[in-house]
Amino acid sequence: MLVSLQRPHVAVACLLVLYQLSSVLSIPDPRQREALIELEASMQTGGQVVLTDAEKRLDAILFKMKQEEIVRADFPPAMHFFKARDLIRTSPIFSLLQKMPKGGALHVHDFAMVDVEWLLKNVTYRPHCYMCFTDNQSIRFIFSSQEPKTLPNCSPWTLLENLRAKMINTTDLDNSIMGNLTIFTDQDPETVYPSQDVIWEKFEQAFLALWGLVTYAPVFRDYYYQGLSQFYMDNVMYLELRALLPEVH
Ligand SMILES: *[C@@H]1O[C@H](CO)[C@@H](O)[C@H](O)[C@H]1NC(C)=O
Ligand SMILES: *[C@@H]1O[C@H](CO)[C@@H](O)[C@H](O)[C@H]1NC(C)=O
Ligand SMILES: *[C@@H]1O[C@H](CO)[C@@H](O)[C@H](O)[C@H]1NC(C)=O
Fold first, then answer.
1. Fewest beta carbons within 10 Å, which of 22, 58, 140, 157?
2. Cβ within 8 Å of residue 66, ≥6 positions away
3. Which ligand is nearest to the CA of 154?
4. Which of 126, 222, 230 to mutate to test the pocket of ligand 3 (most atoms within 8 A of CB)?
């Protein structure tokens, strides 16, 4: 009776010892763990760099700014870019990062490297700029000293200078021109672009609209200069440009 009562106790005791042994064996030495983490951190880019006191202060400020950005109700990296764009532009951490040196911009198309406000204000306001409206609500441009031949599927050409002169307020026209040169929308992007086909069509039409503005030789020169200046202002150190090098006139 005694024996049979004790057996289970022995078994339990054995199990406990085994359990404690195995858990001791499976926990790594915490000092080794610390050393491993430290070694790995030192192998990261900049891991061997020792910060000066001034750099440590900046690092602390950056870290604090980052934490403040993360706790805000709207966290830009978690939003659709069109909705996040204004938040990013007004973000304090963005304006600090903008000044800092960047590695490289590796995928830039020459026909999409200058901001659309510059194209509108600088290029479409130049003399001899004609515009027509396509059958499917896009636009085309051409610079010409005389009225050019009408394009298929496009309205007769209008000289923008004349069109603007007839208007009291050109804001709506200018906004609609800009709307045709980019896929950006301030409406709900998921509603405006319900499928890849819809946004791809809009994307292609935007490039076709840009074509007539950028392939005018005097614009082409300024356009490249403006594009490179914008990357320079953002402190981008290296740029890989996918250039079409179109025929200019
Ligand atoms: C829109 O019009 C342009 C120019 O006429 C044409 O190239 C394009 O295929 C048209 N797109 C659609 C969806 O009809
Ligand atoms: C021109 O029109 C826009 C929008 O329709 C308006 O916001 C703006 O105040 C107007 N500008 C002037 C000078 O009337
Ligand atoms: C247009 O851009 C060019 C090149 O950056 C610049 O030299 C010129 O002054 C600009 N013109 C206007 C009206 O902004």
1. 22
2. 93
3. 1
4. 222
Residue 122 CB–ligand 3 contact under 6 Å: yes
Written as one string, the DSSP assignment of 117-151 is: HHIIIIITTSTTEEEEEBTTS-EEEEE-SSPPPPP
Quick: pLDDT tens for 70-115: 999 899 989 999 999 999 999 999 999 999 999 899 999 989 999 9
Categorise residue 132: left if φ over 0, alpha if ψ from -120 to 50, beta otherwise. Answer: beta
Q: Which 3 state secondary structure label does DSSP give 73? A: coil
The strand pairing partners of 142, in sequence order, are 130
Cα separations in angstroms, 119 against 125, 209, 226, 249: 9, 11, 10, 18
Identity of residue 42: S
Q: Of 116, 102, 232, give the one whose Cα is nearest residue 181.
A: 116
Q: Which ligand is nearest to the CA of 222?
A: 3
pLDDT tens column, 149-180: 999 999 999 999 999 999 999 999 999 999 99
Provide DSSP, 215-241.
Answer: TSHHHHHHHHHHHHHHHHHTTEEEEEE
Q: How far apart are CA 151 and CA 135, in angstroms?
A: 11
- Residue 72 — φ and ψ, nearest 5°? -65, 155
State how far the Cα of 181 lies from the Cα of 179, in Å rounded to an integer. Answer: 6
Distance CA 22, CA 42 (A): 32
